[in-house]
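Sorry to interrupt, but I need a hand with the structure work. Could you write out one complete protein record for me, on any chain you like? Could you add the entry underneath, on a fresh line?
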Amino acid sequence: MRDYCEKWRFNKIKRKDKSIIFRRKKLRDLYLRDISLGNICGPITGYASIDKPWLKYYEKIGITKEIPKVKAYDLIHNKYANNKELISLNYFGKKITYYEMFNNIEMVAKSLKKIGVQKGDIVLMTLPTIPEMVYVFYALNRIGAIVDKVSRWWTMDIYRWFRNNRSRWKHKS
């Protein structure tokens, strides 16, 4: 019983420390933003990974706001579930509503599940910027698979390496 109590207390302290660390990181990022903007003077290391010069382009709310812990699909679905007549994609004049987009995402998700894609799978995706790319991305996200979007300009040697070393399904050449 005592071990359980000690473990519970330790986990409670760990959770508390995480929120403190989160707040400290946000304050540090605000400080670095002010240095980048020239609002205050401070030490600059010369290392972008430490100084974070990109923060000067962020609004303060963008730095301090906590990122929601939901899937990208759930985020857009919850936001536009009641406004499905709005245009989600405009591809060379072809307007696609959220209703159509969500229906296409559902169809792709069912097809992907049918071929065996499941939560936690890493799926290499190389598609041009077309509506189908959006459907596949959100369908994989809806399933819980991890999308590894790669450039379509890679050479065949790189694709072969992925196919032979990282793919769960070994393709027959």
Remarks:
- The two ends are 58 Å apart (CA to CA).
- The longest strand covers residues 87-91.
- The chain has seven helices and four strands.
